[in-house]
Each structure stands twice: as C-alpha cells, then as structure tokens.
Amino acid sequence: MNNRFFTSLAVRNIKSNKQLYVPYLLSSTAIITMFYLMSSLLTNKFVQERSSVLPTLFAMGTIVIGIFSFIFILYINSFLIKRRKKEIGLYGILGLEKKHVAKILFFETLITTFVSIAGALIVGQVFGRLFFMLLNYLLRLPTDINYSTSPMTALITAGLFAGVFAITYLYNVSQFTFANPIKLLKGKKEGEKEPKGSILLFILSIVLIGWGYGISLTIADPLSAISKFFLAVLLVIMGTYLLFITGSIYILKALKKNKRIYYRPGPFISISGMLYRMKQNAVGLANICILASMVIIAVSTTVTIFVGTEETLENRFPNENNMTLNGTDLSQEELNTQFVGLQGKFREEAEKMELKVTDMESYRFLTVFGNLEGNRLVFEEGFPAANVPLYIQVLLLEDFNEMAGKQIELSNGEALYYHSKGALNQQNIVIGDQEFKLKEADYDFGGEAAIVTTMVLIVPELSQIEMISEIYQQELPQANPASIDAFIGWNTDGTNAQKKALGKQMKQLSSASESLSFESREAFREEWYSMNGGFLFLGIFLGLLFTIGTVLITYFKQVSEGFDDREKFQIMQKVGLDKDMIHESTRSQIVWMFLLPIVTATIHVIFAYPIVRKMLTVFGVTSEITWLLSFTGVVVAFSAIYWMIYRITSRVYYSIVK
Predict the structure, then answer these.
(1) Which among 124, 132, 495, 534 is least surrounded, fewest beta carbons within 10 Å?
(2) pLDDT digits over 185-242, tens only?
(3) Three-class SS of residue 418?
C-alpha cells in the first residue's frame, strides 16, 4: 500500500470525525496563536525601547506560555485519541497491521500539524494587527503602538509545535501498540480504576507552592525580584498541577466516605464521575487556575502602572525642574561657586517668564556603593559590575538642614543616617580610618521608590565627604571616579504650558555645559503617559490571550465530561433518573469548575504581591492602595467573565449528556 492510500484514508478519518477534529483543530490553532503573539512581543519596538525590564519579563512569559501550550495540546489530544480507540481497534480486526495504523495516524498528525501551525501563523498576523489597531483606537494614546513580528519568530513557533505534535503522535501510537484490538474495541466503555492519591506527591505540591510563596515573601529588592520571579512562577505552576491532581482526589474520597453527602442522586453522580476521571479533570482545573492567575497579574499590574502615572512621575522627578551638576571635571571651589550661582540664575529665568519659584531644594552629594560588614563600610563597584547590596549617598549637614528645615548640629565624629529598611543595629560606622557615631535622621528620603537598598549618610564637613571619596578611590582604583555632585530642584507657579516653556528654556541653558543635565516633569509628562498607556495596552492584550485560553480549557473540559457521561446518564434515565436530576447534578460541579480555580488563583496572586510590588517599584509605583484596588477590580471582572463562560459551556455539556 502506497502513501497516497494512507493519506486519503487519513483525510477521510478526519472528515468522518469532524465532531472531534474541528474543536481539536480550532483549539490547537488558538493555543499556538497565543504563543506566537506572545513571542512576537519580544521583537516589538515598544517592548525593546521602553524598559530594559520588559524584554526579560516577556521572555519569561513566553517560556511559561510554551510550557502551558505543550500541556494543553497533550490534554486535548488525549481526549481525541480516547474517543477513537474503538475505531483504531476495528482496523486491527479488519486485518491492518500496527505499522499500517501507525502510518494512518502519522498522516492524520501531519495534516492536523500543518493546518494548526499554518492557521495559527495567519490568524496571529491578522488578529495581532487588528487588535493592536482596536486598542490604539480605544485607548487614544499619544503614540500608537504597532504590531510587529519576524520570520524567526514564525520559524521558532513552527519548529516548537511541530515537535509537540510529534510527541502527541508517539503517544497515540503507544496507545494501540501495547493493546490488543479487542481491548481497543471497548474503547471508552472500559472502566477506569479509581485513582490512587499519593501522599508524597501531595506533600511535594505543598512544598513547591510554599517554596514559590517563600521566594515572593522574602524577596529583598526589585532587582532580585526580576531575577527570581521566573523561578517562583515555575515552582507555583508545578505545585498547582500536583495539588489539583493529588489534593482533589483526597477531597473527593473524603466526600465519598461521608454517607450523608454521597448517597444522594446528585452528589452520587457528580462525585463518583469526577473521582474516576480526576486525572484529566485536575489538569483542566490546574490550567484554568494558572491562566486566571496570569490574567489577574498581567491586567492588574498594568492598570496599576497606568493609574499611578502621576505617582511614577513624582517619584522619577521629585521636583517640576531637576538640575544635576556633575563635579567630575570641577574643583571643589568651582563646584561650590556654580552650586550657589545656578540657584540665583534659575530664579532669574523664572522671573523673566513671569513665574515665581515656590519651592527649591539643593544639596551636594557623593554616590558610592558598598556593604556593611558589622559596623565597617566596605566599598564595592556599582552597576552593572556587581550585584550591589547597598546604594549610598553622602550629604553635607548644611544642605540637609536647609532642605529639611531643621537646625541639627553634629560634631566631627558624628553623622546622621537614613536606611530604606529602617533603623540599623550599629551604633557607629567605620569608613577607612574615620569612625562616625550614628544618629537616625528624622526625614523621609523616599526609599520606597528605590530599586535597591538605600542608605543616606549626613556628615558635618565637606572635607569629610572628600575623604570618603578618596577612600573609595583607594579601595577600588579601577572603578569610575566617585565625584561630589550637586542637585538643584525647584517648583514654580503658573500654567502647565508656562512650566513646559520654562523647562524648554532650562534645557537649552544646561546644554551649554557638559557638567549640567536637566529634566523637567512637564516635558516628560506626555511621554510618560504614552509609556504607561503602552503597558496598559500590553496588559489588556495579554489578558485577552489568557482569557481565550481559559475559554478553550473550559470548553474542552465540558465537552470531554459530556461525552464521558452521556452513556452513563442514558442508562440512569432508563432506570428512572429524570432529566431534572441530571441537570441538578451538573450544578454541583460549579465548586470545581468555578470557585476552586478562581479562589486558588486569587491566593496565588495574593502571595505574589510582595514580588510584584518590588517589580512595580522599577516602574516607580509605590502605592499599595492603587494596586489593591486594581487587583480587586480585575478579580471581580474576570470572575464575572469566567462565570459567563462557564454558563455557556455548561449548556454544551447538558446538550451532550441529555
């Protein structure tokens, strides 16, 4: 028999089983489209240019979606092959050898692979462009975000899922290779053994989830959060699968042992049916839980970033106008002269534009990096040469008193300090040969917005700052010079247009000197809203993708349960069970299909809050209330959407079983 015969037979089989293959092809196409769109974001211009963190996060997300897609395709393939076991067994009775059946399955897999991947690439291109156009229209961002992809992304997607379908083919072949045709003819009629729960796997699931939660709860700083987020996600995903597969079995067996609950028609049907198919059901529930978690985190975090745009602007630009004087190429006398002269110059420029300076803060500072070993400050190189544990700014007491409105006095051997993690245990600090007695500064330096642990040291004499700079250079001769710089920030009255014009004038003034750098909050406002709106754009886009995945999982779970339950309910109707009782028994599965995945996903996100909060700090968001409101709103909205999905798909289930 030639390949044309097997190909035609494979095509005929797909057509005759279109009730099974159409949902299978649609679902596999949709899940591949999800991966293709997610991976396309890695090459998106907005993702690459707006933040150095985004490419890393989307790379992690692409890997997670790839793992999920692999599990999902195996899940729906197992449903498909289970429904076709009787047909495959018939081939053996009719005289086809196993190698011939393997060839038929090979061409079936080849056809479904080509249709799914080709369809996904086409749908991805069309859907991606249309959805980006729609979001651009709805959000009305200052700058449109364009959809983009690359041939390499398409090749990677095609290659990856060709491998996944190859694995499904090997699995399908194994289903009849080691089984006799008579057993295959029984197909789904063959009873399943009651699943046995493993206490070891149950404990392992708790350990994995606890490990992931522990990483989130004990995360030190935003930089660590970014590097450890992916590990925490993988641990929780693995733990979730094991928890649903093992923990759900223990719960159902406990319900089965309760005679008052179990020996009633509705619970009897639901509990016994779900217990005997729990391995398949548990995977579906775990998939829904993971996707729900992704939707909640993706949308709530991006909504938080967008809603908190003003907060991020203020954290990034503490004043409306921010000027930094770099002292690398200046003597100390030149720095001091320019430091005083610039403050007067800025007031003059504001008066020329009929604006009044309302607030001004100015200080000279030294920036170094290091670590506290006991009470000794040990210097280390800064970004990106090392994983810096401590970011240190040294200020002059005179400038601090002026900035904070205080009249504090210090002797030569004393220093004030601020630490972003609270009070230090050390009573003094040793820097080189100099020892300072520490007193905590009663002033908030905004450490919540810092992406690394921050310490501010305030000393009484400028010569002491110079001494610390020299010690730093001696200990780290290869490091960049630690210069004493100056910062001047001020606010003015007037309209936003006037403030923006002043910012433009100050920008021109600063461009005349290589030592000056200027940033205006008003000048960046439009760009900032555009950037944060872009994050919201991506969050909604990802939320839609994950919601589509949830729809597919829910649909397939209801369909597979319907086909498995149909003959059982038909038999029960013959012995007196009415249709109302059948409908009532399906309602009891709401706990498993609706409440359990949503509740578990919500718990996951709650425990993920510490690590998510640290990552939000990278984008300048520090408000807990903003995130809490966004999180609550997204949970409620997604629960409502998921409830509608469940109600619609439950009708599909009921139409099958009745």
Answers:
(1) 495
(2) 555 555 555 666 677 888 898 999 999 999 888 877 666 677 788 888 889 988 998 8
(3) strand
What is the rounded distance in angstroms from the CA atom of residue 447 to the CA atom of residue 182?
Answer: 72
Q: Which of 97, 2, 31, 151 is nearest to 548 (CA)?
A: 31
Partner residues linked to 170 by β-bridges = none
Give 58-123 as a DSSP string.
Answer: HHHHHHHHHHHHHHHHHHHHHHHHHHTHHHHHHHHHTT--HHHHHHHHHHHHHHHHHHHHHHHHHH
At 472 the three-state DSSP class reads helix
How far is it, in rounded angstroms, from Cα 71 to Cα 353?
64
Rounded to whole angstroms, the Cα distance separating 222 from 232 reads: 14
Asked whether 457 and 392 are in contact (CB, 8 A), the reply is: yes
CA distance 388 to 375: 18
Cα 59 from chain centroid (whole Å)? 10
Radius of gyration of the chain (CA): 32
Q: Residue 618: name the closest of 59, 43, 141, 57 by CA.
A: 57
Q: What is the pLDDT of residues 533-568, one digit of tens each?
A: 777 777 787 787 778 777 777 777 777 667 666 666
47-52 contacts, C-beta under 8 A, 24 or more apart? 47/538, 50/531, 50/534, 50/535, 51/531, 51/618, 51/619
For residue 242, the surrounding DSSP H or E stretch is: helix 222-242
Residue 363 · residue 396 · CB < 8 Å: yes
Q: Tokens for 191?
A: 């009873």
